[in-house]
Design brief:
The chain has helices spanning 12-16, 23-36, 40-57, 69-82, 87-106, 136-143, 150-164, 170-174, 203-213, 234-258, 269-278, 284-291, 296-303, 309-319; strands spanning 181-182, 185-189, 196-200. The chain is mainly alpha-helical and 321 residues long. It has a three-stranded antiparallel β-sheet with strand order 1-2-3, with no helix packed on it.
Length: 321
Amino acid sequence: MLYPKIVSLQSKDFYTATVRLDFFAVANIHLENLKGRNKHHQYDTEIGRLKKFKAFLRQDELSFSKLTPSLLKRFEGYLLENQKRSPRTAVNYLILIRTIYNLAISESIVDRGRYPFGKGKVTIRIPESQKIGLNKEEIQKLESANNLSEAQQNAVNVWLISFYFAGIRIADVLQLKWSDIVDDRLLYRMDKNSKLVSLKVPEKAKNIFLIYRKLEIQNNLIFPYLENTNLRNQEEVSVRTQSVTRNLNRALKRASIQVGIKKNMSMHIARHSFGNISGDKIPIQMLQKLYRHSSITTTIRYQANFIHKDADDALDSVVNF
């Protein structure tokens, strides 16, 4: 089977091509589109997933006619049983395959009649995931921690800044600049969806920022982790952020063990911790604003992980007699 060079689906060259495209050729176009949108972390992740799919197939080519519900179900079983992947991870693989298939349909590369997803075929259901955050006492242990190594203390500081600003993502924390703080407010544009954010700087955050004000960090950055990175090169920033996050997570886990926290710690759990402590105390519309969610439905689903009072009261009303 012949394939054209990888080009944008919007280019004239693509539409004049007379060769056929198989699944992996369309997958390459999908990957190039991700690169073009600076989705470098997603690009790297999905390259790995496609390699795993090829390993399962034991070949580098796959016609859409052979991409059947039976094949997909066998691949899902392979991920769950042979590769010991979680159900959520297996779903992520299927979502990627579906995305590529939909791209092929939208560009008339394959007929919708062959679509292997949907009722009676392969149905993608995202399993509920358990989100566990720290409680007040555990966060206070981090705030008052002493005798930590420099790397551990820096990791705790980064984590606390994320928590103090309603769980802003680690990629955004690492790119915060002093120029983002104006009149005691943090003003920045989120890396994930380019939303503008304006949040008051809490006193606790000010105390941490004072520590880093004394450092001469390049690029006007608050934290030093990306100071030797070309911030205009999104691919370089993405690769460096992934590496830094891994190191911060390791240091954070060691610090949490030292202060007596038994929960599995990571930078992302700062967001869950904010949700856990806010519970049902804050109106859902305000939480949507703090979380920077586009849809309130997303906020409701997310916060449902941390709202237990009504269920607890209902249980007590039955068993406490």
